[in-house]
Design brief:
Type VII secretion protein EccB, T7SS_EccB_R1, T7SS_EccB, 11 helices, elongated, alpha/beta, 353 residues, six-stranded mixed β-sheet
């Protein structure tokens, strides 16, 4: 009857109303499935709620730190942990969860580390100041290959003459550096003759600060050489190495001098500022702590070092055990801001985008 009233035809050859009913049922079923899927997704993967976590991470990656009931955009992970007072891991927070909390001003220490290493560097690694054949200086944490006991080279720092009007030559070995008596004096000539040093000797020309990274030993005298005897190449008491095409590194007492045909370290980053060193080659796994002998400092991936107020601050940052350092090399790295909770709270800084 409905077919006849609507279409004026009671033969029921075609039944478009049935097709409409079927389409309606299919649409309702699809809508039900979509609603059920959305409900299941809300249960399985709900919008992240950080609860009472002290450090929050937005979906964009931006970090926030909770101070009382207020969340503050924070510049980096180190600042967030200093403010939180412990090595908190960032909790994921949805936009709704962040919007539900009062938003405070941006805080944080500009340039503080954004990542922290999970492990300390290899205990075999040593700090070294390396000069490439082109004169570029790299501060590296590497495993050096010290020269043999009877090997060394003659060094003449680049800046000595410009500063004092005199040129001081040094004998550098795996043990350290020893000043040579002044050239042209009887003692100086005798020492150079015993070493086999003449006008053809290849001299290493490092920056003064790089040479100073090798431990200083007493001045070399003819008496010392007479006692050592002639054991080096060419009749000298030391076999003098040619530094011309080598990467030459200085460091602490157990690796005061090493020569390498190729770079003894991995990838290096450019250092900020105009210091003696231009590059830094570290582990690249996040910031780590170093015992300088005068306190603990933090070295970031970009080679900037940060002072800690006390050893306990390293635990607050979640740093691994401090790696042994060598201050004459570490001092070549640019110094950043001290890592303190007070500095993290007092200094405004833009949040990471």
């Amino acid at each position: 009857m409905r077919h006849g009233l609507v279409f004026g035809d009671i033969r029921m050859i075609h039944d478009p109303l049935a097709r409409r009913r079927r389409a309606g049922l299919i649409g309702a079923a699809a809508a039900g499935l979509v609603a059920a899927g959305a409900g299941l997704l809300a249960v399985v993967d709900p919008a992240p709620d950080p609860g009472e976590a002290a450090v929050l991470r937005a979906e964009s990656g931006a970090l926030f730190v909770r101070v009382d009931d207020t969340v503050h955009p924070v510049a980096n992970l180190a600042s967030a942990r200093l403010i939180a007072g412990g090595p908190e891991e960032p909790a994921e927070a949805s936009p709704d969860a962040l919007a539900a909390r009062p938003l405070g001003r941006p805080v944080g220490i500009p340039g503080a580390p954004g990542t922290v290493a999970e492990e300390a560097p290899s205990p075999e690694a040593r700090w070294a100041a390396c000069v490439a054949p082109d004169g570029a200086v790299t501060v590296a944490l590497t495993v050096p290959r010290p020269l043999a006991d009877a090997a060394g080279l003659i060094a003449r720092p680049r800046a000595d003459g410009a500063r004092s009007g005199t040129v001081r030559d040094w004998l550098v070995t795996a043990e350290g550096r020893r000043a040579l008596p002044e050239e042209g004096t009887p003692e100086g000539d005798r020492v150079r003759a015993a070493l086999g040093v003449d006008q053809a000797t290849r001299v290493w020309r490092p920056p003064t600060e790089v040479l100073a990274a090798a431990p200083e030993l007493p001045e070399l005298t003819a008496v010392d050489l007479d006692a050592a005897g002639a054991s080096g190449a060419g009749g000298g008491v030391v076999e003098l190495a040619d530094p011309t095409d080598a990467e030459v590194c200085t460091g602490g007492p157990d690796a005061a001098l090493s020569l390498h045909a190729a770079r003894p370290y991995g990838a290096a980053v450019e250092l900020p500022g105009e210091g003696t060193a231009q590059r830094f080659a570290g582990p690249g796994a996040g910031a780590f702590a170093v015992d300088t002998g005068h306190g603990v400092q933090v070295i970031s991936d970009n080679g900037v070092r940060h002072r800690l107020p006390d050893p306990e601050a390293a635990a607050v940052l979640g740093l691994p055990e401090p790696h042994p350092g060598w201050w004459p090399v570490l001092r070549l790295l640019p110094e950043g801001a001290a890592l303190t909770a007070e500095a993290a709270l007092e200094v405004d800084a833009p949040a990471r985008p």
